[in-house]
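Lecture 7 notes: from sequence to structure.

We start with a single chain of 101 residues. Read the sequence below before looking at the structure.
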Amino acid sequence: MYITSEKAIERLAKNCLDEAALAAVFKNNQKEIEQAVGEWFGQGSVKHDAVSRVMVKISKSALLFHPELQSAETFIVDCANAECRNLFEQAIHRIALAHYT
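Now the structure, written as tokens:
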């Protein structure tokens, strides 16, 4: 059964552990999610972990989705970029701490 991205996000807003809804979000937006992660982290070994973290962020942020303000796809890409930025900043912070301590 096909689940639209918008319906999947609505389901995640009710239950952030809804595996079918999260899988639908990924399946429907895989190219865009992987592109966002690739822009921040390239295509190396970090990519898989970053995609997983992005999916958790999307799931936990589903309550913030307002379909009257933006499309589901825009919401998903915005969440992906926000989480990638957060992960990148955390990595830079850890590198700086390791270098200066």
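The helical segments are 5-14, 19-41, 46-61, 72-100. Keep this in mind for problem set 3.
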